[in-house]
Design a protein that fits this description.
This protein has 140 residues and is an alpha+beta fold. Helix content is 23%, strand content 34%. The chain has helices spanning 2-14, 27-45; strands spanning 17-20, 23-26, 56-65, 69-74, 87-90, 95-97, 114-119, 129-138. The strands form two sheets. Strands 3-4-5-8-7 form a five-stranded mixed barrel.
Length: 140
């Protein structure tokens, strides 16, 4: 019992501090610093979640047009081809334009058409791979 009282008295006298040779570190300040650091990190990582942080584009040949999505084959030499030889491009929020930049309907995209696809750089690694497009431009 005497040992427990001695430990309790020591802990109270420490005032929530850790003693290291030549230093006293306050546990409360250290805990607050860690929490603050974690919150800042989460804030920075979530900075691009609701906006288009980066737009990536690639050229592809249209294999299928299902009105709500396209199945395409990325052009030779594109980075997307190293992910998959077939990509489903979801058109939910995409603007579709012709070679002159005029808006057109999705039915204007024919099988065999060459298109430029602009997206956020995120590719779902499935087969076929999947992306969400911001813009699809019919090249030819």
């Amino acid at each position: 019992m005497l040992v427990l009282m001695s430990i309790d008295k020591h802990l109270r006298s420490c005032n929530n501090s850790i003693f290291l040779p030549g230093k006293v570190i306050n546990k409360m300040k250290t805990g607050r610093l860690i929490i603050f650091s974690v919150l800042i990190t989460l804030f920075l990582l979530a900075g691009c979640s609701n906006q288009r942080c980066e737009e990536i584009s690639f050229f592809a040949t249209v294999l299928e047009n299902n009105q709500s999505n396209l199945l395409v084959e990325p052009a030779e030499g594109s980075a997307e081809l190293s992910s998959a030889d077939r990509i489903v491009v979801y058109l939910e929020d995409a603007m579709i334009t012709d070679a002159q930049g005029n808006k057109v309907d999705v039915i204007a995209i024919e099988i065999g058409s060459q298109v430029k696809i602009i997206y956020d750089g995120i590719i779902a690694e499935s087969y076929p791979a999947q992306i969400r497009s911001y813009r699809v431009q019919i090249v030819e």
